[in-house]
Write a structure and sequence with these properties.
By secondary structure, the protein is α/β, with parallel strands linked by helices. Helix content is about 40%, strand content about 15%. The chain has a single domain, classed as 3-Layer(aba) Sandwich (Rossmann fold), CATH 3.40.50. Helix 3 links the parallel strand 1 and strand 2.
């Protein structure tokens, strides 16, 4: 700890290499994503992300996909604001009762063929919330899910691998 504090005083900022910083793995998965996107989606895969009641942990990892390190757009994947422009729906969190109708409407607005990806443990099985007076549980309890990406939260590499699994189907 003392060495880190000395480094902060000397340099001003401490940057760490991400735990999944094996660039060859990121490149390999990304190149495969790019190949499938080119072949099946005309070079661009549009994803609409929906927070159905999460703690925001999964969203932070999803945002990391767009940072300069992971830069998912270089592989042909982008996030869109409208479900009408989306090829896939990426859902996080257990589905709260307040988000149930909005999630269904969003799913209905995505043009066919639809891909639904449940990201994070809560989206996969309801997590610690399960089914209760305020929570409907897992995304699969409401929508047909194509791919589950477990983890609390899943890392950007796990998310990228999950997206690849979804578009390969």
């Amino acid at each position: 700890m003392l060495r880190i504090l000395d480094r902060i005083r000397r340099i001003g900022v401490v940057t760490e290499t991400p735990p999944d910083a094996d660039d060859t793995t990121l490149q390999q998965v990304g190149i495969e994503v790019r190949r499938v996107v080119e072949a099946r989606y005309g070079g661009s895969l549009a994803i609409r992300q929906v927070d159905a009641g999460s703690c925001n942990g999964c969203e932070l990892e999803i945002h990391a996909l767009d940072n300069p390190y992971h830069d998912i757009e270089r592989f042909g994947v982008r996030f869109v604001a409208s479900p009408r422009h989306a090829d896939a729906l990426l859902v996080t969190g257990p589905v709260s009762r307040h988000m149930e109708a909005a999630l269904r409407r969003t799913w209905e607005a995505v043009p066919a063929p639809k891909i639904v990806i449940a990201a994070g443990q809560c989206a996969c099985d309801g997590g610690e919330f399960g089914v209760s007076y305020a929570c409907r549980g897992a995304v699969a309890d409401l929508l047909p899910v194509d791919v589950l990406i477990p983890g609390c939260p899943p890392t950007p590499m796990e998310l990228l691998r999950g997206i690849l699994a979804a578009i390969r189907r």
